[in-house]
Design a protein that fits this description.
Blueprint: E1 2-7, E2 17-23, E3 26-32, H1 45-48, H2 50-55, E4 64-66, E5 75-77, H3 80-98, E6 103-106, H4 120-128, E7 132-134, H5 140-150, E8 166-170, H6 174-177, H7 182-190, E9 194-198, H8 204-207, E10 211-213, H9 220-233, H10 239-245, E11 246-247, H11 249-257, H12 261-268, H13 272-284, E12 288-292, H14 302-315, E13 325-327, H15 338-342, E14 351-353, H16 357-363, E15 371-375, H17 379-382, H18 386-393, E16 399-404, E17 416-419, E18 428-431, E19 438-441, H19 454-464, H20 476-486, H21 490-499, E20 502-503, E21 526-527, H22 533-536, E22 554-557, E23 578-581, H23 583-588, E24 596-600, E25 605-612, E26 620-622, E27 658-664
Parallel strand pairs: 6-15, 7-14, 8-9, 8-12, 9-10, 11-21, 12-13, 15-16, 16-17, 22-26, 23-25
Antiparallel strand pairs: 1-2, 2-3, 4-5, 4-17, 18-19, 19-20, 22-27, 23-26, 24-25, 24-27
Helix pairs in contact: 3-19, 4-19, 5-14, 9-11, 9-12, 9-13, 9-14, 16-18, 20-21
């Protein structure tokens, strides 16, 4: 029995370091280590039970080739040589007959490390001339807003939240998506800090908050502008700071003053006195920090909402002190270019959108997609307009290859399935996008069955297609070293990885905004009304677009579930899913707790169960994202009801924009 060091690269901001117990060549225990101070020996239940994912009955252990009708899940075992040969031949034929753009890679792994995403894969597909996938599922809209205002300036370290005296958690649920900030919030509360939570649900953190505001989806920007107006009117705006460090302050104030408090209360569904309480608490709090999540970007007003929230610390000047400012994504603290290191060739090609995968598979012409290669993702369960995605996967003239560790719903529609390693079975280099940490991990166990890493498979296809070149970096260890070396601070990072086991960005582990780090905009200032963001939006930045008319009266939101990371790990969860709806909405429809229900709109229907709770605001239905077909009686999930409509900026999908009705099944 040995305890080995590793790190988690999954889609979570915390980038946990791990102590992994290995006994007899098998992982028997996974616990958090203290190497990353944010982890502090504690990890989420998902990764704590990683052995169930490694050795569960859904694990794919050998290459498989389809034998039955598409989507039937009927396969036979095959050798790696046969499976890779079939994929290479399909790619070669598609390229030679229809052009490289008839090949579409499809992945979405969030923060998967650089050896799994961004190097070997990009090298192969760029040399094939394949269509490029815009991975626009998450953070594109928020990233556009953050980049416009601050140039992706690094934010407040999560470990510094313990020093705050006012904490706002807006549009995120740390108990499901990043647990390690919670102890620091609790420390701050014990020291007298006030906590505000903005979420249409009553989350665990909301129950502990001094103030919980539950706006109607897509109205967060209206709420933030109303708060900004109150700050200006109450004399709490730091006009000296705005003059010295911001552009567009006068125009932002004009737009904020146009948002009357009573108007904001009517639109958001929040009492005017509660909005005023928010402004009073925020004005008085020092240091004050806003944790801005991704929930508020997934609608028709996403960019305006995120921008309005992130403008608040500039208006009141909450910067310049530890724990003062905001935290969104801290990925901007790093300057890696893995594609260039890997030798991916930049070239003109076609771009497809992950959130419009169904349309790409069924409507693209000149040429149509003839080969779909899926890795690091389960698009049938994560992309909107689910039934169109399914129709695309069932095309007889589409060759589908899936490389995954488990038999996902997408894999059941494949022509060839390849067994993939998990992050404990291959080497990885990954940076956090919340925690200021770079992790370098090596495999702690041999791959289960015949599993192979992305690096091995993409390199194998590179050879079979005759696309390898002299000088290509093939060894994962050498690739990781080259990525680090190409970073502006590469020598220091390499030394820290070798001596400490983790590395920090140039900004350090706890930068103070507007002191240690500054806006990375072209002007070097905070751009409160940035161009071209302002001109790109239908009503300008901070303009509110009301809900379109619909005969479906309820808004469906699809937050993360603490049992899974999007769809990853949901194969381990049984039972029929429950939607949550408010008692008023349930009573109006004759729905009781536990009843079988039909949630539907013009796109489709989902048959599941109901949970009646006052933990969701009226007019909103809550259904977890990432569910698998087995979790509903109809085999469809929330994405069957979500249109492939885009948010206001960044070309992300408005996941929290689906209008539905719920009836008894």
């Amino acid at each position: 029995m040995t305890v080995l060091r590793s790190a988690c690269p999954l889609d979570c901001p915390d980038a946990c370091t791990l102590d992994v117990t290995v006994d007899g060549g098998r992982v028997t225990k996974v616990r958090g280590s203290t190497l990353n101070p944010l982890t502090a020996g504690r990890i989420c239940g998902k990764v704590m039970h990683m052995d169930r994912h490694l050795y569960g009955s859904d694990r794919v252990l050998t290459p498989l080739i389809r034998t039955g009708p598409k989507g039937s899940g009927s396969f036979r075992e095959a050798s790696w040589d046969e499976a890779l040969g079939a994929i290479a031949e399909a790619m070669r034929t598609a390229r030679d007959t229809h052009g490289g753009t008839s090949i579409l890679p499809c992945s979405y792994g969030g923060s998967n490390g650089y050896l799994t995403e961004g190097t070997y894969n990009r090298r192969l597909f760029s040399r094939l001339g394949a269509s490029r996938l815009r991975r626009d599922v998450c953070a594109m809209t928020a990233g556009a807003a953050l980049g416009g205002l601050y140039g992706k300036m690094p934010g407040v370290a999560l470990t510094d939240y313990s020093a705050a005296r006012l904490i706002v958690v807006w549009g995120t649920n740390p108990h499901a998506t990043g647990i390690h900030v919670i102890p620091h919030i609790q420390v701050a509360q014990k020291a007298g800090a006030k906590l505000i939570v903005v979420d249409p649900r009553t989350t665990q953190l909301a129950k502990r908050a001094d103030l919980h505001l539950a706006p109607h989806p897509a109205t967060d920007g209206v709420l933030a502008l109303a708060v900004a107006r109150l700050l200006f009117e109450g004399g709490h705006a730091d006009r000296t700071f705005l003059e010295e460090h911001c552009h567009g302050a006068a125009e932002f104030e004009r737009r904020a003053r146009a948002r009357a408090l009573e108007d904001a209360a009517a639109i958001t569904g929040i009492d005017a006195d509660a909005i005023r309480s928010f402004a009073d608490l925020y004005a008085a709090g020092d240091p004050a920090v806003i944790r801005c999540g991704w929930g508020l970007e997934r609608n028709r007003n996403g960019a305006s909402s995120v921008a309005a929230v992130l403008a608040l610390p500039a208006v009141a000047n909450k910067f310049g002190v530890r724990a003062g400012g905001y935290t969104a994504s801290n990925s901007g603290a790093w300057s890696f270019d893995p594609e260039s290191v890997a030798g991916a060739v930049a070239q003109e090609t076609r771009t497809a959108f992950l959130t419009q995968l169904g349309a790409a598979l069924t409507e693209l012409t000149d040429p149509p997609v003839h080969v779909l290669y899926v890795y690091n993702g389960n698009p049938l369960m994560t992309c909107p307009d689910q039934e169109r995605v399914r129709r695309g996967l069932l095309r007889e003239d589409l060759f589908v290859a899936v490389h995954d560790a488990v038999m996902t719903d997408t894999a059941r529609h494949a022509d060839v399935v390849l067994p993939a390693t998990t992050f404990l079975e291959h080497d990885e280099l990954a940076r956090g996008y919340g925690a200021y940490v770079l992790n370098r991990a090596t495999a702690v166990v041999e791959p289960a069955g015949q599993s192979r890493s992305n690096a091995e498979v993409f390199d194998g296809l590179l050879d079979r297609l005759g696309l390898a070149r002299d000088g290509d970096i093939r060894d994962p260890g050498a690739m990781a070293a080259a990525i680090v070396a190409a970073h502006p601070g590469g020598d220091r990072l390499a030394t820290e990885l070798d001596t400490v086991g983790i590395a920090r960005p140039d900004s350090g582990e706890g930068p103070i905004q507007m002191a240690d780090v500054h806006p990375r905009t072209e002007s070097g200032r905070i751009e409160l009304v940035p161009e071209p963001l302002d001109s790109d939006l239908p009503r300008g930045l901070y303009g509110y677009v009301p809900a379109p008319d619909s005969r479906h009266p309820l808004v469906m939101i699809t937050p993360a579930d603490r049992r899974a990371i999007t769809s990853t790990f949901f194969q381990l969860v049984g039972g029929i899913a429950q939607i949550r709806l408010h008692p008023d909405d349930a009573a109006a429809r004759g729905i009781t707790n536990g009843a079988a229900v039909r949630i539907h709109n013009d796109l489709g229907e989902v048959l599941c169960d109901a949970r009646v709770t006052d933990g969701i605001r009226p007019g909103v239905v809550w259904m977890p994202k990432g569910l698998w077909a087995k979790h509903t009686r109809s085999g469809a999930t929330s994405n069957a009801l979500i249109p492939a409509a885009l948010s206001d900026c960044g070309e992300s999908t408005a996941y929290n924009e689906a209008r539905v009705e719920v009836t008894l099944a």
